[in-house]
Amino acid sequence: MAAKGPLKLKFKAKAKGSKGGSNSTSSSSSSVSSKFEVIKDWTNWSLKKAKVATHYGLIPLIIIIGMNSDPKPDLFQLLSPF
């Protein structure tokens, strides 16, 4: 397998201020789009965190529930597919 180069970090450049002139409608529309971008960023961030938590927490949760069940199985019985 070939060695990969250094990791590159991706950053979004966000412009501050209104993009239009001094027109109040352009500043209100950029405010609305700014709010939409913030909501979109928070949604993406929270879904990424939920994906990681599910990925690393699902198997341990199944093992814990299995160990607390009524006929106490051994750990080997929980991990074996049969």
TrEMBL record:
<feature type="region of interest" description="Disordered">
    <location>
        <begin position="1"/>
        <end position="35"/>
    </location>
</feature>
<dbReference type="Pfam" id="PF08038">
    <property type="entry name" value="Tom7"/>
</dbReference>
<keyword id="KW-0812">Transmembrane</keyword>
<dbReference type="InterPro" id="IPR012621">
    <property type="entry name" value="Tom7"/>
</dbReference>
<keyword id="KW-0496">Mitochondrion</keyword>
<comment type="similarity">
    <text>Belongs to the Tom7 family.</text>
</comment>
<keyword id="KW-0653">Protein transport</keyword>
<keyword id="KW-1133">Transmembrane helix</keyword>
<feature type="compositionally biased region" description="Basic residues">
    <location>
        <begin position="7"/>
        <end position="17"/>
    </location>
</feature>
<feature type="compositionally biased region" description="Low complexity">
    <location>
        <begin position="21"/>
        <end position="35"/>
    </location>
</feature>
<keyword id="KW-1000">Mitochondrion outer membrane</keyword>
<keyword id="KW-0472">Membrane</keyword>
<keyword id="KW-0813">Transport</keyword>
<protein>
    <submittedName>
        <fullName>Mitochondrial import receptor subunit TOM7-2-like</fullName>
    </submittedName>
</protein>
